[in-house]
Design a protein that fits this description.
Distance between the termini: 34 Å
Largest sheet: 7 strands, mixed
Number of domains: 3
Helix content: 10-25%
Radius of gyration: 26 Å
Structural class: alpha+beta
Number of strands: 24
Bound molecules: zinc ion
Length: 390
């Protein structure tokens, strides 16, 4: 009995020590493109740094904390503080820490812009492409406050942190052909580096360290949007394909984020004609009234528009909700549409594609229903499992 207790205690001790060690342990890295920059950059680090050639790892410069190096790339190759860098020519350089285990603690700066992790400088067609090599948790610090206000309910911000982490890891290699993983714009996820970091967002990231959403062992396509307007959507009704976990989910409140748009019938007919649908003067708009959470022949399960038929003097045209959204720049496809004399009135709710987590919806569940982030995530990503990846 005593022996068993001893074994149990030592197992507990082992577990505890690995948990304690986890924060400093391995985590994945991302190569984030910061875009193309001018060919002269002033570089520094918040701790001692080295500037290395990426091909042979040869150190070409060592700097103390906050010491600057001015690096120029021109016809003759690299110049460092006004002197030509021999043999470096057109090779990629990286500003990083001497000991890779300290990468997460490094803040690299170029021209007063700071990013956690290392900076890669890639000569590219007469200019420099800048790539930030950053551990995922440090990357998220520059992403989460860009995607959701950090002062929102901490449970909503934690849900956002898990969704952003899952999304980023799933997006990895999206730009592999261009030599990096993700870009720093909304195409992948908006990333602002150290300048946008907020203490409350950092806390949410830390509280969910390494946690991701998985389905049958694979990362979930953890999409999110600003506001569903009353109900999120099934993936096949937005992109055309069924995606596991992206199922229509109810909201605490409906008819949220109302918006309006008007367009003259003449202007609308012109837009249709430009798309090869010349129906002449518009006579009638056929779309059933909006009922959130109720499907119809022209509406999806959430009430979003599937299709609208336009009757003109010379013919008819049918358009999908998504095509209309793109053509008219509408906030969502959850709308009603009517023709009143010479003007089309469009009234809608929500902002975004309606897939995955609604950010305002997550806030509402956290604020008024006191849901924790796990419950919020399970609601918006049905069937997904929350797993600690590292
Ligand atoms: Zn991208």
């Amino acid at each position: 009995m005593k022996k068993q207790l001893l074994v149990l205690l030592s197992v507990c001790f082992l577990l505890l020590s690995t948990v304690g060690f986890a924060e400093a342990a391995w985590q994945p890295e991302l190569l984030v493109s910061l875009g193309t920059k001018s060919t002269t950059l002033r570089l520094s680090g918040n701790r001692p740094v080295v500037l290395k050639r990426l091909d042979n790892k040869k150190v070409v410069w060592k700097g103390k904390a906050k010491e600057f190096a001015t690096l120029t790339f021109g016809d003759k190759g690299w110049e460092l503080n006004g002197k030509k860098l021999r043999k470096a020519d057109a090779s990629t350089l990286e500003l990083t820490v001497e000991d890779e285990r300290n990468l997460a603690k490094l803040v690299s700066t170029y021209d007063n812009k700071s990013y956690r992790g290392a900076l890669r400088l890639v000569p590219h067609k007469g200019s420099l492409q800048l790539i930030n090599r950053v551990p995922v948790e440090e990357y998220l610090q520059g992403v989460v406050p860009e995607e959701m206000p950090a002062e929102w309910n901490p449970e909503a911000v934690k849900a956002q942190a898990v969704a952003a982490r899952t999304y980023a890891l799933r997006q990895r290699k999206r730009h592999a052909k261009e030599g990096f993983d993700v870009c720093a714009t909304t195409h992948c996820q908006q990333y602002g580096g150290v300048a946008v970091e907020r203490a409350a967002a950092n806390q949410a990231i830390k509280a969910t360290y390494g946690e991701v959403l998985q389905y049958r062992g694979a990362l979930v396509d953890a999409m999110f949007h600003t506001d569903s307007g009353g109900m999120t959507e099934n993936s096949e009704d937005v992109w055309g394909g069924r995606v596991d976990c992206l199922r229509a989910a109810k909201e605490v409140r409906t008819k949220t984020y109302p918006w309006e748009k008007n367009i003259t019938a003449q202007k609308f007919s012109e837009l249709l004609a430009k798309r090869g649908k010349n129906i002449g003067d518009l006579k009638k708009v056929e779309l059933s009234p909006i009922k959130i959470g109720k499907a119809g022949r022209d509406r999806t399960i959430s009430g979003r528009v599937k299709k609208v038929t336009f009757v003109g003097k010379r013919g008819m045209a049918t358009m999908t909700g998504n095509d209309l959204r793109n053509m008219l720049g509408l906030k969502s496809t959850l709308f009603s549409m009517s023709l009143n004399r010479h003007v089309i009135f469009i009234q809608g709710y929500g902002w975004g594609h309606g897939l995955g987590m609604s950010q305002y919806g997550a806030k509402a569940y956290a604020d008024s229903e006191h849901w924790d982030y796990q419950r919020i995530l399970h609601h918006y990503y049905q069937g997904a499992e929350l797993k600690k990846l590292y």
